[in-house]
Write a structure and sequence with these properties.
379 residues, alpha+beta, 3 domains, 5-stranded mixed sheet, 15 helices, globular
Length: 379
């Protein structure tokens, strides 16, 4: 039975609550192991991963959600093989726990294969994909390799096909994780890959459940429609999953009349709940995980943020919604947080933004000679 209608504001507050952006989750004091590491992993799993097509946005994503988060809290999980970076939802790189890597990748394999066919079908025409996957897996398990190295080695067997296309074929067909020092805070490293099974010394899950994936999505991003879940995951035919789960889910109507599904006991705060100013990471799934994104970003802001170059900036949340963009400019003189607002903020809002900006600079540029907050455009 369909329950009450939910306003855009109600959906906004539900999303922020589940994303830990109404109030930061506490993080135990102490070294980045034991209880502290477990808290970080639990949040990564609650969020169903963080988009990580660039190396460092997940650090900012966790900083915005965990009180007292430090770069080493994530860096040590990466080097300790407790979290990994792998192509998953929408075919993009996500940072997920080792457990979720082994669970999610089999479920999302159709997304990777569909993307491969859409982009590289002509360049890989005539290639036996099973043979390509077997050869590619052997090469990356021999030692981690860049896509450039992998493609050149594969071209010895398939000389009539572009090396880059061969490497991308392996990316889609074999669960490849990026290995350190890539994405380790304070270090630089080329993207090198090995198989998830080799890196984690465990096989992929042999009986993963789409039902569980759908419910994981709702826990992090609901209430949501089938179209929303498909936009987040890249999967199709999730209506079948929603119908199977319907007896144990709650249903609502969104502002435009769409049917929304939700977990019965998931948080749905009052629409009047105060939403603090937050600085959200580049490529954050908060903005990217619904077909209808009006619960977090208005049309004018969307046009400014979604550009043709594929770079998705850090965003400013004020009053719960995207109100601007941010970046950190670094030079020998110091580091500056540069904020571009899309409209005016109250004096209290501006003060909260600057306090949050100072926290961000202390996190991201602790060793900078000077730290400053600048406005590219004052609203």
């Amino acid at each position: 039975m369909t329950s009450d209608a939910l306003s855009t504001q109600a959906l906004n507050r539900a999303l922020l609550a589940r994303q830990r952006l109404l109030a930061r989750a506490p993080l135990p004091a102490g070294p980045a192991d034991g209880d502290r590491a477990a808290h970080v992993i639990r949040l990564v799993e609650h969020l169903a991963g963080l988009q990580a097509q660039a190396p460092f946005p997940p650090y900012y994503g966790l900083w915005s959600r965990l009180d007292g988060f430090r770069p080493e809290d994530l860096a040590e999980l990466i080097t300790g093989r407790q979290v990994v970076r792998i192509a998953l939802m929408r075919g993009t790189i996500h940072l997920v726990s080792a457990r979720d890597c082994l669970l999610f990748r089999p479920l999302l394999q159709p997304v990777l294969e569909r993307g491969l066919s859409a982009v590289y079908a002509r360049q890989l025409k005539g290639v036996d994909t099973r043979a390509l996957a077997t050869a590619g897996r052997a090469l990356v398990e021999e030692q981690p390799r860049s896509f450039g190295e992998l493609g050149e080695l594969l071209a010895a067997t398939w000389p009539d096909h572009p090396p880059a296309a061969l490497a991308q074929g392996v990316r889609a067909l074999v669960p490849l994780v990026q290995v350190p020092p890539r994405a380790v805070w304070g270090r630089a490293g080329q993207s090198r890959h090995t198989s998830a099974e080799s890196w984690l010394r465990r096989p992929l899950h042999d009986a993963p459940s789409l039902d569980d994936l759908f419910e994981r999505y709702l826990a992090a991003f609901g209430p949501a429609s089938v179209a929303d879940a498909q936009a987040w995951s890249g999967l199709t035919r999730l209506r079948e999953v929603a119908e199977r789960l319907r007896p144990r889910l709650r249903t609502f109507r969104g502002p435009a009349g769409a049917e929304l599904f939700d977990l019965p006991d998931a948080p749905r705060p009052s629409p009047d709940t105060e939403a603090p100013v937050r600085l959200v990471a580049e490529f954050d799934n908060l903005i990217l995980s619904h077909a209808d994104r009006t619960r977090i970003i208005g049309e004018d802001a969307r046009k400014r943020i979604f550009t043709k170059n594929g770079i998705f900036p850090g965003t400013v949340l004020a009053g719960g919604f995207v109100a601007g963009m941010w970046r950190i400019d670094r030079s020998r003189a110091g580091s500056a947080l540069v904020v571009e607002l899309f409209g005016p903020l109250s004096a209290a809002g501006r003060g909260a933004l600057e306090a949050e900006g100072e926290r961000l600079l202390s996190f991201a540029a602790a060793d900078a000679a000077t730290r400053d907050i600048q406005y590219a455009r004052v609203g």
